[in-house]
Design brief:
126 residues, alpha+beta, 60s Ribosomal Protein L30, Chain: A, six-stranded mixed β-sheet
Length: 126
Amino acid sequence: MKPQIIATDLAPKAVGPYSQAVRVGDLLFCAGQIPLDPATGQIVPGGIQEQSARVLENIKAVLVSQGLGLDRVVKTTVFMVNLADFAAMNEVYAKSFPANPPARSTVQVAALPKGAQVEIEVVAAY
């Protein structure tokens, strides 16, 4: 199977040498999204809840560009700079996956690009 590179203007452009997503067979591997406003390329103002909401909107935009929704996500990885913010992030996250949530890993990291507080990557199935 040849990987298919995915790019959409609905989500922030990649800030480095990577693709927004790559499709291989029936799986879509989405690069980690940080809380960039697609229109400005800047981190959205606010705290962990605002940033988490923007990240999930960016992920949704990549999925929608491929005819998918958040209900097709089978695995997420959440990277946070402060796990003390986990409950607040989780409150926003739960609204995006109200039924049959995907498998998830959450890890604390020392830092994220552009000073983001949260980054989420997903794998979705067609």
